[in-house]
## 1
Amino acid sequence: MDKVTILGRSSSLFSSIQAELRDENIQKDRLRFRFNLERAGEILAYEISRSLSYSSKEVITPLGSLEMQVLSEQPVITSILRAGLPMHNGFLRMFDHADNGFISAYRQHTHGNEFIVKVEYMACPDLEDRVLIITDPMIATGKSLVLSYQSLLSYGKPKEVYIAAVLASEAGIEQLKIQLPHAKIFVGEIDRELTAKSYIVPGLGDAGDLAFGLK
């Protein structure tokens, strides 16, 4: 399997959802924006599910029985607050028995366009030898995801790591490949440009602000 799976490169329902997420007129409907993040999360969750481990289980129906494939184990879905919450809901609808984790990672600007990423809150189950899925709508520089993963290691070392995002920059993806070489990345689309302030262009704006209002 290739390290990076890009869903939006082929025409599908996902590309239509992305179009609405990027559209500045549709973005004015905050409820619709959150709903589209949830739908994107559901589709990303399904795509990730195709690469997880399954085992055979006998299922009894009203008329007989048959062997079917079910997940061998439930993943831990961990989302970066606050923008990751709608996506998290989408993932949880698909992995409805999954364990859940939450982490706050935000930019603290120092001087000029420079910033550091700070983590101030984590709530997570044991990750030792588990399948970890980290969700974040936007991967700009990749710093938040890398620091989040490093912080989550205090809960144990997962055996598999998946990263899911609606949109990323080329620089952010390259950073993840270097810092998290073992992770499998599922992303809606990859944009080429980052501004001097590390915002993705053409991007879609600030996902957290669009979903929940200005900070």
## 2
Amino acid sequence: MTLLLALAGCSPGLSDSWWNHPVSQRPSQAPTAKPVQPNALPFGMIEVVKGDSVHALARRHNVAVRDLIDANRLEPPFKLLIGQRLRIPTAPPPRVREPVIAAPEPTLAARPGPVPESLIVPEPMPKAGKGFLWPLKGSLLAGFGSNGKGLNNDGINISAKRGAYVRASENGVVVYAGSELKGFGNLLLIKHQDGWVSAYAHNEILLVGRGDRVERGQSIARVGATGNVKHPQLHFELRRESKPVDPLSQLVEG
């Protein structure tokens, strides 16, 4: 699974030790003092290593991505530096989940791309309102259907400021959170009742993971330009029983 955020930079280099100096510049004998052991990190602190990201650290330490960001006052695009020290907020007590049942493989929001693995997820909560909420405010870049150049858009593309919050259009459960669908960058698929699935692509960062229940209007991601787009935007789709539906026929203000 490709990580949401790439690490940037590297730790500062160390000065050469005395035994790497030319013989004429070495001291007459090796230092007799015991080597200084690195100070232990304070309780609740961790040090970023290669491969770490905000999303990966939040999952590893069982804390919410939003809590980790707020605890360390991280700013978009939330890139981490190797050697950077972060405070891990106190993890909340484990949630008591209702009994779960096996669900079919999540509906694909776009093609081409690999089929996400089968998931065991809870059933989505009943819908909270009529229609689906607009996932964010912004100008329409591309509409549903054919663009006249032999390409077909199974959803709509909405221009927005990088880092703007993306909202869940309806109560549901996350059945996919990742970046394995080629061209769509960081992608969320949310299953709703009555056979509906909503898709949210090109995000900078995902704030929820698969198996999480989400509520209508809840912040689930932040706008980015991941995948095959050059400018910050959200690609949004609605599907019912795997068939794409024009979002503009279902979206309501809220």
